[in-house]
Design a protein that fits this description.
Blueprint: H1 4-34, H2 38-47, H3 49-66, H4 71-77, H5 81-119
């Protein structure tokens, strides 16, 4: 028979495994961002969905198991405090790594927006008018006509 403590240990271990998988994926993502390997970044973003969903479901299950008790109370009462603190430490590492990835993405986004700004025409981007002369001059003067 599975005891509530066994169920709790199993849940915490599964959450820790999901976080470890996400840490691995985020580390790989950071390498791909630095290398500007956008197809790899996109692939990793899709790949991260599985462990994120698993982690969300496990946390929801943990809340159900806790019922109206605080998670800290059931963790302490079931003697799995160390597993819980390991999980919190891993989650904090993952958050730091995720913020680093976000900073890398923001830096690339800024560079891309600057490059796009150079490529977009400005309001008066016509260099030559219909007559083949520059559109930047204030006026033209006709010197002779035939």
């Amino acid at each position: 028979m599975i005891t509530p403590t066994d169920k709790l240990k199993s849940n915490l271990a599964a959450q820790l495994a999901a976080i470890a998988e996400l840490e691995r994926l985020v580390t790989t993502e950071q390498s791909a961002l630095r290398a500007r390997d956008w197809s790899k970044v996109e692939s990793l973003a899709n790949e991260k969905q599985g462990p994120v969903t698993r982690l969300q479901n496990l946390y929801r299950d943990l809340l159900v198991q806790a019922g109206r008790h605080a998670i800290g109370d059931i963790v302490g009462a079931n003697g799995v405090w160390q597993s819980w603190t390991d999980l919190l430490d891993a989650a904090a590492r993952l958050q730091r790594a995720n913020r680093e990835s976000m900073a890398l993405l923001e830096a690339h986004k800024g560079k891309a927006e600057s490059a796009l700004g150079l490529l977009r025409p400005s309001a008066d981007a016509r260099l030559y008018g219909r007559n083949g002369r520059t559109g930047l001059s204030a006026g033209t003067q006709r010197l002779a006509s035939a």
